[in-house]
Design goal:
Blueprint lengths: L4 E3 L4 H9 L3 E3 L5 H6 L7 E4 L9 E4 L2 E5 L4 H6 L1 H6 L1 H8 L4 H6 L2 H7 L6 H7 L3 E4 L3 E3 H4 L14 E7 L3 E8 L6 E9 L4 E6 L6 E2 L1 H9 L3 H5 L16 H20 L1
C-alpha cells in the first residue's frame, strides 16, 4: 500500500465534511482495500464510516423496508424484518461472497461501487428502490450508470436504501466459482403494478430486461420466461463464459427465479 491518513468520524456531518474535502470513503472495504493492496488505488486519505451509527439499521416504514447504508450483508441476511417483508433480499444477502465478506461488506458500499457482477444492484433495480444520500433521493432507474459508475457526485454519501415491498420476488444466480460473484444473476419482482427483471453479471453493469418483463407481466410463470429468446448482443464474453452462454444463463436463471418466487 501507499502512505495515507486514516479518519474515523463518529457523525454523518463529520463524515460528509471529510468526504467533501476529497477523502476516500471506506464502507466495508471488500473492494477498496484489495485494490489498495494491489496498488490499483492510491487514496491520500481514508474516511472509515464504521463508527457512524446513524448509517446502520433496518426498519419498516409503511410499505417500505429501509436499510442503512452501513448495514452488513450478514445483518440483512439474518434480519427477521427483511425475511418477513422481502425474503428474496435476505436470501440474496446470505449468498454474497463468503462468511468473512458478509460480516464486513455493506449494502451502501456494494451499490456505490457498482461492480458489474455484484448482487445488490439487481435487488435495488428490480425492486425499484430509492437511494437516499446526504444530498437527495435517487430512483433506482437513475442511479446505476454503467461500469463502476453511479449518479453519486463527488463527496455525496449514501445514507440508506428504501425498498418497496413487492407481492413476490426472488433472486437466483449462477456463481463464478472462484470469486462467488454472479456469472449471471437474475432478480425478478412482481411489484403489484408491474414486473421488473434485473440482470447482473452480463456486461458493464446491472440492467433491466424489457423482454422478460413484458412476458412475465402477461403471465408470471416459468413458461413465460422460457418463451423469451434472450439475445447475446451486448453481453460480455471472457475466459469465464461466452456472450452466448451468458444469454442462455439469463433465460435459465429467470425461469428458476420465477419458480422460486411462486414457491
Amino acid at each position: 500500500m501507499y502512505t495515507f491518513t486514516f479518519e474515523r468520524p463518529a457523525s454523518l456531518a463529520d463524515a460528509s465534511k471529510l468526504a467533501g474535502a476529497g477523502g476516500k470513503v471506506l464502507a466495508g472495504g471488500q473492494t477498496l482495500l484489495a485494490s489498495m493492496k494491489l496498488r490499483l488505488a492510491n487514496p491520500g486519505q481514508l474516511v472509515d464510516l464504521g463508527a457512524v451509527r446513524e448509517l446502520s439499521g433496518i426498519k419498516r416504514e409503511g410499505n417500505n423496508l429501509v436499510i442503512g447504508a452501513m448495514t452488513r450483508h450478514a445483518e440483512v441476511a439474518a434480519s427477521k424484518d427483511v425475511r418477513d417483508a422481502i425474503p428474496a433480499l435476505a436470501d440474496l444477502a446470505g449468498g454474497i461472497g463468503d462468511r468473512q465478506v458478509r460480516a464486513l461488506g455493506t449494502i451502501g458500499g456494494s451499490i456505490a461501487n457498482n461492480d458489474p457482477a455484484a448482487c445488490y444492484p439487481s435487488a435495488v433495480l428490480a425492486l425499484n428502490a430509492t437511494v437516499t444520500t446526504t444530498q437527495r433521493k435517487i430512483a433506482a432507474d437513475d442511479f446505476f450508470q454503467g461500469l463502476f459508475t453511479t449518479a453519486l457526485e463527488e463527496g455525496e454519501l449514501i445514507t440508506s436504501v428504501s425498498f418497496p415491498i413487492p407481492r413476490r420476488a426472488a433472486y437466483v444466480k449462477f456463481r463464478q466459482p472462484a470469486s462467488r460473484f454472479a456469472l449471471i444473476g437474475v432478480f425478478v419482482a412482481d411489484t403489484g403494478s408491474g414486473v421488473r427483471v434485473a440482470v447482473t453479471g452480463g456486461g458493464n453493469g446491472v440492467v433491466r430486461h424489457q423482454e422478460l418483463e413484458d412476458a412475465l407481466g402477461k403471465a408470471f410463470t416459468p413458461q413465460s420466461a422460457a418463451s423469451v429468446k434472450v439475445s447475446a448482443e451486448g453481453l460480455s464474453s471472457d475466459l469465464h463464459a461466452s456472450a452466448e452462454y451468458r444469454a442462455n444463463l439469463i433465460g435459465v436463471m429467470a425461469q428458476r427465479a420465477v419458480a422460486k418466487a411462486l414457491g
